[in-house]
Design a protein that fits this description.
This protein has 257 residues and is α/β, with parallel strands linked by helices. 46% of the residues lie in helices and 14% in strands.
Length: 257
């Protein structure tokens, strides 16, 4: 009887604290985010651009908590693009060190909360060996978790993803492992970095920019796009809730009437 009362109390608490105005029966399966505006946030405060990236850490993990509260299954964030290597060397070096430290600081907590952490993007090239090692360790630690899959697009570009996939398809065609006449959209999906990842239902971009920026171009063919003026370091779970409410207010037809 005591356990029954405890279960009822937990259900009541969840009902009370669940964000208002969100229908939990029609949640998006996958929300993708472009975390933009760190540099502008810092510059407006007379700080270094790297201070803006550091401030974005709180935004990220508060948003992850919001995803867990909602019960989302997948969330993908744009952490470092293939184009970001063009930034000043000190900023690139900071971002490499920052992402390594971020994993070390948060992976145990994410693991305890049932979050599976994964990475998509090119693992080699200029990515430091120690960062690749932290990525592999974190993925191995959290591999069995299924409460939320948190994917970091790191050293990622959608065009690079398609190029890499096409190269692998071509190699399999040459090896007679793939019939070129049988190639279709399902085939291409199998050659993406994370073929099991569902397409994002919602793509959220912060900082008032209206660009996709080479992010998940194949996967967002029918995603709902949500743009906010909020700079990423100021983004919190309430902004995620707003994006979900906007998603639920839209009618998705996928080309039909």
């Amino acid at each position: 009887m005591q356990n029954l009362h405890a279960a009822e109390a937990l259900r009541y608490l969840r009902a009370v604290t669940y964000p208002a105005g969100i229908d939990r029966t029609s949640l998006p399966t996958h929300v993708a985010l472009v975390m933009d505006g760190n540099g502008r946030w810092a510059q407006r405060r007379g700080l270094k651009r790297t201070d803006g990236h550091a401030a974005g850490e709180e935004a990220l993990f508060d948003t992850v908590e919001g995803a867990l509260e909602l019960g989302l299954g997948w969330m993908t964030v744009y952490a470092f693009s293939t184009e970001n290597w063009r930034r000043p060397l000190d900023e690139v070096r900071f971002l490499m060190n920052f992402n390594e430290r971020l994993l070390l600081a948060h992976r145990d907590d994410l693991h305890a909360k049932g979050v599976r952490v994964r990475f998509i993007g090119r693992r080699g090239g200029r990515v430091p060996k120690r960062v690749r090692q932290r990525i592999e360790e974190t993925e191995a630690l959290t591999a069995r978790n299924r409460r939320l899959t948190l994917t970091f697009a790191f050293n990622y570009g959608a065009r690079a993803e398609l190029v890499d996939g096409v190269r692998r398809i071509a190699a399999d065609v040459r090896a007679n492992a793939l019939d070129p006449d049988a190639i279709d959209d399902k085939t291409i999906r199998r050659y993406l970095y994370a073929p099991d990842m569902p397409d994002p239902d919602v793509l959220v971009r912060t900082s008032g920019e209206f660009r996709i920026s080479n992010y998940l171009l194949w996967q967002i063919a029918y995603s709902e796009l949500v743009f906010t003026d909020t700079l990423w370091p100021d983004f919190r779970r309430e902004h995620l809730y707003d994006a979900v409410r906007e998603f639920q207010a839209r009618e998705r037809r996928f080309g039909a009437i």
